Amino acid sequence: MQQKIRLVLSARQWTRIEKFCVGKPEDPGGTGADNRMFIEAVLWIARTGSPWRDLPAVFGKWNSVFVRFNRWSASGVWQRIFAVERGSRLRVSDHRLHHRAGPPACDGGKRGSQNQAIGRSRGGLTSKIHLAVRGLGLPVRCLLTAGQRHDITQAKALIDGLPAEWVLGDTAFDADHFRADIKAINAEAVIPSSPSRSLKLPLDEDIYKERHLVECCFNKLKHFRRVATRYDKTARNFLAIIIVAAVVLWLR
């Protein structure tokens, strides 16, 4: 008896991203064979947080699916799909989600963990997601660093090249150089003054109320269990899982 699996993508959603996937259904070899079921396999892994070895047989051989996922991650296919889906104005920018790295991620191996966005913070070995979202709370840029890295270190990279009317962030983003970066893109900084400032800067409190949208976005991303807890060894593949989850939010 064939195992029944709940799929994520509707026919309409698949049509939106099909043309941006590598290969065509009629192509020979792994790059073109049933792209939709491959995407669904990755989404199953992202949703459930299960090990790749537990991938249901209906999706094919787990190792073949993982190798293909890893290849797409290395070649930037996931990022290209995300770039097409997120074409809107940036209105809200924020940061911060800590992840306790799971055993596979913490295993240093021969090359160690120094380049895999894993660092020691008060929560132990963690990674940190830095996120920018647009006005409706949809992600437009995701960055990944070790857990001990301060939010301001990724602030400029979060908004670089993105159009914006306002850039919202909490007091962790209150730095003169970041305010100058915001002004350079013809946007208005809506950031509360740090307690260390002797002279408090004006704040549009009505617009700042929209900052909750980034927290709502984090909550939606954490519905994907492999985002909520990091199990991937490499930062590249963990970021790819986050991007896959972000694409699904755009498709809804």
Could you describe the 3D structure shown?
There is one protein chain. This protein has 2 domains: 11-75, no CATH class; 88-233, 2-Layer Sandwich (Nucleotidyltransferase, domain 5). It is 39% helix and 14% strand. The chain is built from 11 helices and 7 strands. The strands form 2 sheets. Strands 1, 2, 3, 4 and 5 form a 5-stranded antiparallel beta sheet that branches. Helix 7 links the parallel strand 6 (166-168) and strand 7 (188-190). Helix 2 crosses helix 11 and helix 4 packs parallel to helix 11. It is elongated and about 65 Å long. Mean pLDDT is 82; it is low at 27-32 and 87-109.
Key features of this structure:
alpha+beta, single chain, Nucleotidyltransferase, domain 5, 252 residues, 5-stranded antiparallel sheet
Question: Can you summarize this structure?
Answer:
It is built from eleven helices and seven strands. The longest helix has 17 residues, at 235-251.
